[in-house]
């Protein structure tokens, strides 16, 4: 992994992976597999490639088995090296990373017990890096994630507190510093660290502008990555940069309509809602209605009918209908929003109030 020649050979392939050029990445990884058939690296990269096929449309589980199969193959070869050379730091890195990525997939699917045990296995191998200089920025990625999320998860998911008693305490501030170091110095885990920092800073820590800087960098570096694209559009909208947000959202919709790799209903429901909001605020009501309806259709196609983008798209169609003098249609939308929303949600209360007024 520290071989500069191999890193140079792999750089373009890894960049292709993150840029949704999956076929190109796979072709290069097959070459790597041919050269190193008994090493975990090519199989791990195949698995990572599958993970980034999943990321843009996470509700699609069709590639889960393929990703896990690649990771299990990488695990087999990493364990073989570890058995022969128990102190081999490279084997420890792969064992930690493989269990970590399996844990991420289990967590995405709500399999929290599996995710916790995968994380525990990952941490066991992470411990081998203590005091080691080789691969230290790569190992620091796992440390940073652990330190941050060990504290964040129980704060936000109380039901998981019993499981987390298995783990040592973390440190969120230290975790962010470690991930920042990895995002600048690591080779294999740099982009993953940047992805997590973007999410942590913009959502969990409320540092939206720092998150936007990372989102802009990731989108411009990997312009075909649908996940980075929609996150960039989301943060442009959140920071009030409406003209730029409009342009990015229109491009997202165009990419979906053109069946571009990675672009689908998840990206569409974001872009559709943001465009609806932008056009409603500028009194382009017909355009606003068009995109709110698209946000609704995208949401329904992936059973995302409890999220705010769906509920508020329905509600705002009611607001527009009312503004255009169609009280009957407005009532229909408000009733639907109230029916779909849960009691106590703001959109439920707003729809209820609107119905009383009408």
UniProtKB/TrEMBL annotation:
UniProt superkingdom: Bacteria
Keywords: TPR repeat
Pfam family, one: TPR_8
InterPro entries: TPR-like_helical_dom_sf, TPR_rpt
Annotated TM spans: none
TPR repeat boundaries on the chain: 269-302
Keyword Metal-binding: no
Full protein name: Tol-pal system protein YbgF
Record organism: Marivirga lumbricoides
């Amino acid at each position: 992994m520290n071989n500069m020649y191999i890193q140079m050979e792999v750089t373009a392939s890894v960049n292709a992976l993150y840029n949704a050029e999956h076929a190109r990445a796979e072709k290069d990884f097959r070459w790597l597999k041919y050269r190193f058939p008994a090493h975990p690296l090519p199989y791990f990269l195949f698995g990572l490639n599958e993970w980034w096929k999943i990321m843009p449309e996470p509700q699609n589980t069709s590639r889960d088995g393929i990703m896990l199969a690649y990771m299990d193959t990488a695990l087999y070869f990493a364990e073989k090296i570890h058995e022969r050379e128990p102190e081999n730091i490279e084997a420890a890195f792969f064992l930690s990373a493989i269990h970590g990525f399996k844990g991420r997939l289990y967590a995405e699917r709500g399999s929290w017990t599996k995710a916790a045990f995968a994380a525990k296995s990952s941490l066991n191998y992470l411990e081998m890096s203590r005091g080691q200089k080789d691969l230290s920025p790569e190992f620091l990625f796992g440390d940073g994630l652990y330190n941050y999320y060990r504290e964040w998860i129980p704060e936000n998911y109380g039901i998981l507190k019993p499981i987390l008693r298995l783990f040592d305490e973390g440190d969120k501030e230290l975790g962010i510093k470690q991930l920042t170091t990895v995002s600048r110095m690591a080779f294999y885990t740099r982009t993953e660290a940047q992805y997590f920092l973007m999410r942590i800073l913009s959502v969990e820590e409320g540092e939206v502008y720092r998150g936007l800087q990372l989102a802009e960098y990731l989108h411009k570096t990997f312009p075909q990555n649908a996940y980075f694209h929609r996150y960039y559009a989301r943060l442009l909208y959140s920071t009030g940069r409406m003209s730029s947000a409009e342009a990015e959202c229109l491009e997202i919709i165009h990419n979906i309509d053109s069946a571009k790799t990675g672009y689908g209903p998840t990206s569409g429901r974001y872009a559709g809602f943001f465009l609806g909001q932008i056009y409603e605020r500028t009194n382009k009501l017909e355009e606003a209605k068009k995109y709110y309806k698209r946000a609704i259709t995208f949401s329904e196609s992936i059973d995302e009918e409890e999220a705010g983008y769906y509920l508020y798209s329905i509600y705002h169609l009611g607001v527009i209908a009312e503004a255009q003098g169609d009280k009957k249609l407005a009532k229909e939308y408000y009733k639907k929003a109230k029916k779909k929303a849960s009691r106590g949600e703001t959109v439920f209360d707003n729809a209820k109030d609107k119905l009383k007024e009408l």
